[in-house]
Design brief:
9 strands; 471 residues; three-stranded parallel sheet; four-stranded parallel sheet; alpha/beta; globular
């Protein structure tokens, strides 16, 4: 029986171990999509306790605790102490065997705190006290200190076009060696299906752009101003969180009239909403192309399924799930519209439903044009799929139907400063996948080919992202 989570964790043969320890482990981290709070980096936030650092905002853990019969007040409540919340999490951990949370939990304890103990009800108080002691007394256990600890080179946050990006400027001016760059997330600018909220947002966007938005052309002008500002602040990527792709045919007079209708207090039909969002997606895509950015599409989630808890807690609190959508034709049509205009930017497609891995992997080859290696990417396993099985399936689909060698690798997609071990988890999984092929005689590992394999591992872990995004 192998020991739990030793130095060769997930590495099931000597070749996998060599690839990881000699090539993957040493590479810096480029976390090109995350949800870190920029203010916390600007302030070099010092955490009050392990509960704030570990459980605050972590809906993965909340879902597990709820499934284990833990009352909501120990997840998101304000009438329970940090210790009480941590204790309930510690009681839940032994019930998470075979869930990635079990591995992530112990990777984070070991790599951030140097604690090589299993978390359970018997060890909970000891680990709670030891973590809190280090958070209080170790000057490196801060937001920035944790980024340094994990050898992070660049992070890209997720930011609305109306955001001031003041904290990004503070970080840059401070001389902090880790780059923190904004990412353009304009979803609210096309959310006409919620007209009252949309009108309020347009007013906010106009204020940020320094202009009044009355017409659709005004909207495009305001967005372009903010897009240019994001460019000045170092932005190199956009990101869209969509249920499915939008690619309906429309005319410009139709879109102009729809925008006016909403701004005058009206609402759109479902068909009009589809057309309006289709127009906005073209506007966004062309802006990204002109700036040389990469556009990202995270699609396929059904969000806020529990209306009762949404009213109580709001979004992003653990009540979302994988959706089933027939998106292939719309995705192809959208990419083709931009490609036909000569304005298809570098693109990363992230599917949330694993049954779409092969569908999206075959989509890539339709629009590769030889201008950039891996111009159209199959994004890494996302959200419910950023675990061993999900990552293996994504990489297998990409290997069989595209070029794994050109893959831009892993990201955290996280709000937590303790999520960087997910890169280690990914790298170990990658090395085991390739190492097993070598051990099975399916990939050569001598002479030139050995150097090529070694380079491929380093490229996927770091170099490909560095070159692709041109940070």
């Amino acid at each position: 029986m192998k020991p739990f989570m030793d130095e060769n964790f997930l590495l099931q043969n000597e070749t996998a171990q060599k690839l990881y320890h000699e090539h993957a482990a040493k590479m810096p981290i480029i976390d090109y999509h995350c949800h870190l709070i920029p203010k916390m980096v600007a302030d070099d936030h010092k955490f009050s306790s392990i509960t704030e650092l570990w459980l605050g905002g972590d809906h993965y853990k909340w879902r597990a605790m709820r499934s284990n019969g833990v009352d909501e007040r120990f997840c998101t409540g304000k009438d329970t102490t940090d210790w009480e919340k941590f204790q309930k999490w510690a009681e839940t951990v032994p019930y998470t065997f075979r869930n990635p949370l079990y591995h992530w939990t112990h990777l984070e304890l070991k790599t951030a705190f140097g604690i090589d103990k299993l978390l359970n009800p018997e060890t909970a108080k000891e680990i709670f006290d030891e973590c809190n002691d280090k958070l209080r007394n170790d000057p490196n256990m801060t937001a920035r200190g944790l980024m340094r600890r994990y050898n992070v080179e660049t992070v890209c946050t997720t930011d609305d076009p109306a955001d001031s990006l003041e904290y990004h400027k503070q970080v840059k001016d401070s001389g902090f060696e880790v780059k923190m760059l904004p990412t353009w997330r304009p979803d609210k600018a096309m959310a006409v299906d919620k007209p009252e909220e949309y009108r309020a947002y347009i007013a906010k966007l106009g204020e940020a752009a320094g202009m009044e938005i009355r017409t659709f052309s005004d909207l495009v002008e305001a967005l372009q101003k903010r897009h240019d500002f994001f460019e000045e602040m170092g932005c190199r990527l956009s990101d869209h969180g969509i249920e499915e792709f939008y690619a309906e045919d429309y005319t410009q007079p139709e879109i102009d009239a729809m925008f006016t209708k909403v701004m005058d207090g009206g609402s759109l039909t479902p068909e009009e909403v589809e057309k309006f969002k289709s127009a906005m997606m073209i506007v966004f895509g062309e802006m990204d192309y002109e700036s040389g950015w990469t556009q990202q599409f995270h699609y396929g989630a059904i969000r806020d399924n529990n209306s009762k808890m949404f009213k109580l807690l709001g979004p992003d609190t653990g009540f979302d799930s994988i959706g089933e959508f027939n998106t292939a034709k719309k995705c192809a049509k959208y990419l083709d519209k931009l490609n036909s205009r000569g304005k298809l930017a570098k693109t990363i497609l992230y599917n949330l439903n694993p049954c779409a891995n092969e569908v999206m992997a075959t989509m890539l080859g339709n629009f590769q044009d030889g201008s950039v290696a891996g111009k159209i990417q199959l994004g890494s396993g996302w959200w419910f799929l950023d675990q061993k099985d999900g990552m293996q399936k994504q990489m297998n689909a990409l290997s069989l139907l595209g070029l794994l060698s050109r893959f831009v690798g892993m990201l955290t997609d996280s709000r937590s400063f303790l999520s960087y071990p997910r890169h280690e988890y990914f790298r170990r999984t990658l090395c085991n996948l390739v190492g097993t092929d070598i051990e099975n005689g399916e990939v050569p590992y001598t002479g030139y080919e050995e150097k090529r394999v070694n380079q491929m591992i380093e490229d996927i872990c770091y170099n490909n992202a560095k070159n692709y995004f041109k940070f």
